[in-house]
Design goal:
Blueprint (H helix, E strand, L loop, with lengths): L1 H4 L10 E9 L4 E7 L4 E7 L5 H7 L9 E5 L6 E5 L6 H6 L8 H21 L4 E2 L8 E3 L5 E3 L6 E2 L17 H4 L7 H16 L9 H9 L13 H10 L10 H12 L4 H9 L2 H46 L11 E4 L2 H6 L8 H9 L13 H5 L12 H38 L15 H6 L1 E5 L10 E5 L9 E4 L2 H15 L10 H15 L10 H14 L7 H19 L16 H14 L1 H9 L3 H10 L1 H18 L1
Antiparallel strand pairs: 1-2, 2-3, 3-5, 4-5, 6-9, 7-8, 10-13, 11-12
Helix pairs in contact: 4-6, 4-9, 6-8, 17-19, 18-20, 19-20, 19-23, 20-21
InterPro entries: CDK5_activator, Cyclin-like_sf, Kinase-like_dom_sf, Prot_kinase_dom, Ser-Thr/Tyr_kinase_cat_dom, Ser/Thr_kinase_AS, Ser/Thr_Kinases-Pseudokinases
GO cellular component, one term: protein kinase 5 complex
Pfam family, one: CDK5_activator
Length: 653
């Protein structure tokens, strides 16, 4: 911290008088404040800690870059202090009625100002900087309508940047940024083209699409924003060059400035541009038609995925029927299912016989090598696939030996529970001698309130009923001969439920979509696969349920930025991976959102302390994990109820 404080002015927190919240960047909330000692109106961006943003800003000085005054280094009130731009963001201006008065001269002036600021960052600054998050929200207007680039939370010094993590906002992100490939300064050129499109059309890019959908369209389908046919050709050509898929084919900002200067000398351009701006009703239908086509494309993909999910469900039900016919007890956790059995039944499973775990393992490992499992089509796997990545080849014999070894370890763990159940049963039998009460399982009547209040009920789907028709299974004391709870759900369904839960929990993050957390998890999973830390995805129903259990305790509703949520979620994911696959040494790099590893470990310890009671409960109660599974699956129903309630409120108004 001392090295940082020596490079800029250190401002006391008491020297600032805070006013209203005037927005938020990707990595912190921004407040309007008064710098008391300097009698100056400033903007203060609150951070969890001071990282590279203050260091970057302290080295910059340009009329189109937000002016940096200093930083607050007092824990926990970290923040950076910059000039206050009273005109708000460019995004807000383009969404207002004032934008209807824009003309060619205004657009050309602002396009030049943004390009000059970016050219300074890439070529003229003391240390070359790649912004990585250029968008209309990160361009602000001063009182005299001069544009300035701000929010360097995602920026990196160019000499230190060879690979990208997924930062920024998808409609403005270049394809190589979405795929976490090596980048250059031309990734900012792509974003500049999107901002130029916003100024010309005064529309929101990819309006109505979620982040992951935009990523799939841009990378997989090579889709770009629609340029209306009546758009001036010079502007259309410039935007197309900025959006080239190959980074080397995009112009640098020195070339962009040269193109803009040439365009400003064209005597025909003002008339063409003003005619385009003032006849929006004539060409807006072209943008709407493209958006509708993309929605149909996305719906077709969703229907195919749904069809595969239904096939997967039918396959799972078919396997269960085979298990029932062969009289084999389904004692193992299967992909997509959570199952719980009573302590007494766990003890029985250790005996030799056709209904034991050992016999089931022999049946499983003795399957024909020609048997194939259904693999779901995943467009995201194709998006983030890197060139030269090597696929881990699984050795059948080795895997079978590993499965048998892990099974033996699990049996030894379960043996301890069987001993515990024996001790409890002995105590209960001694109590039976003192009581004349009948110990048989009570019948549950729909009209009996007392019985309903003393017996827990869990939904169960078996092969004899429809998948969507739940049966009720009673969970009573240890004398119940069988206690079985099974919940079915696909990994994709659980991930969507997790995203919806986080959106409801972090209600202050208005720009967040339910697919953002899913993307963060997929990026980490792809990194682990590509670098051979595992030979199959670590994202499965069990890990998603465990992650959901951690998030319910660790994710606070007071989180103010996506950066904070990203850090907490990946810390929970690291804890989940470490617990579920403790034989694997996971690297910290893909899980780190903050550059400081100490912050990561402090957060890990706090999560572990929060979950100590839950972990004990999960290890002693065989139905606890299944109940968490059911809770997660019900998150989507909560979202549907919320939508129906809101639609009902609006319809009555």
């Amino acid at each position: 911290m001392s090295s940082l404080s020596s490079s800029f002015v250190q401002i006391k927190h008491e020297d600032l008088r805070f006013y209203e919240n005037c927005g938020g960047g990707s990595f912190g909330s921004v407040y309007r404040a008064h710098w008391i000692s300097q009698d100056k109106e400033v903007a203060v961006k609150k951070l969890l800690k001071i990282e590279t943003e203050a260091e970057i800003l302290s080295s910059l000085s340009h009329k189109n870059i937000i002016q940096f005054y200093g930083a607050v280094l007092e824990s926990p009130n970290y923040g950076i202090v910059t000039e206050y731009a009273g005109g708000g963001s460019l995004y807000e201006y383009l969404s207002s009625e004032q934008s209807e008065e824009m003309d060619m001269e205004q657009i050309m002036t602002w396009a030049m100002e943004i390009a000059k600021g970016m050219h300074y960052l890439h070529s003229e600054a003391p240390v070359k900087v790649i912004h990585r998050d250029l968008k209309s929200r990160n361009v602000v207007l001063t009182a005299d309508k001069v544009l300035k680039i701000c929010d360097f939370g995602a920026s990196k010094f160019q000499s230190h940047t060879t690979h990208m993590t997924v930062v920024g906002t998808f409609p403005w992100m270049a394809p190589e940024v979405i795929q976490s490939l090596p980048v250059s300064e031309t990734c900012d050129t792509y974003s500049y083209g999107v901002v130029l499109w916003e100024m010309l059309t005064r529309e929101v890019p990819f309006k109505g699409f979620e982040g992951l959908q935009v990523a799939w369209l841009v990378v997989e389908k090579q889709e770009r924003l629609t340029i209306p046919t009546s758009c001036p050709p010079s502007f259309a050509d410039l935007m197309k060059k900025c959006w080239q898929a190959e980074p080397k084919e995009r112009p640098v900002f020195k070339q962009v400035l040269g193109t803009l200067e040439t365009m400003s000398k064209d005597s025909r351009l003002p008339e063409q541009c003003n005619s385009f701006l003032h006849n929006k009703d004539q060409w807006r239908c072209e943008i709407d038609a493209t958006l509708e086509r993309l929605r149909r494309l996305e719906r077709d993909l969703s229907s195919k995925e749904k069809e595969l999910e239904e096939r997967e469900l039918r396959l799972r039900l078919w396997e269960e029927r085979l298990m029932e016919r062969s009289n084999v007890t389904p004692a193992l956790l299967t992909m997509g299912s959570a199952m719980s059995i009573s302590l007494r039944e766990k003890a029985v499973l250790f005996k030799d016989g056709p209904d034991t775990v050992g016999h089931l393992m022999e049946v499983q490992t003795g399957k024909s090598a020609k048997d194939k499992t259904l693999k779901r089509y995943s467009p995201w796997r194709r998006i983030v696939k890197k060139k030269g990545s090597k696929k881990v080849q699984a050795h059948e014999n080795t895997n079978q030996n590993n499965i048998a070894h892990l099974s033996n370890e699990n049996l030894e763990k379960s043996q301890s529970f069987s001993n515990l159940s024996t001790l409890i049963l002995e105590k209960s039998q001694s109590c039976d001698k003192l009581s004349t009460q009948d110990q048989s399982t009570p019948a549950i009547s729909n009209s009996s309130n007392n019985a309903a209040s003393s017996v827990e009920k869990f939904p169960l789907c078996n092969s004899n009923t429809a998948p969507d028709t739940p049966q009720m299974v009673t969970v009573q004391d240890l004398d119940t001969p069988r206690r079985l709870v099974m919940v079915h759900a696909t990994t994709g369904e659980l991930l969507r439920c997790l995203g919806e839960f986080l959106c409801r929990r972090c209600h202050r993050l208005q720009d967040m979509s339910s697919m953002d957390p899913v993307l963060w998890l997929r990026v980490v999973d792809r990194y682990l696969l590509d670098n051979c830390y595992q030979n199959q995805s670590c994202i499965n129903p069990a890990t998603v349920v465990f992650l959901y259990m951690l998030c319910r305790e660790a994710v606070s509703s007071e989180l103010a930025t996506l950066h904070e949520l990203h850090a907490v979620l990946l810390t929970c994911f690291y804890t989940t991976c470490s617990y579920m696959g403790n034989e694997i040494a996971y690297p910290l790099k893909p899980f780190l959102v903050d550059t400081c590893g100490q912050t990561f470990w402090i957060r890990c310890m706090s999560i572990t302390k929060l979950m100590s009671d839950k972990m004990l409960q999960m290890n002693t109660d065989p139905n606890f994990f299944s109940q968490v599974f059911a809770d997660l699956k019900n998150e989507s129903q909560k979202e549907e109820k919320k939508s129906r309630l809101l639609s009902g409120v609006y319809s009555t108004q």
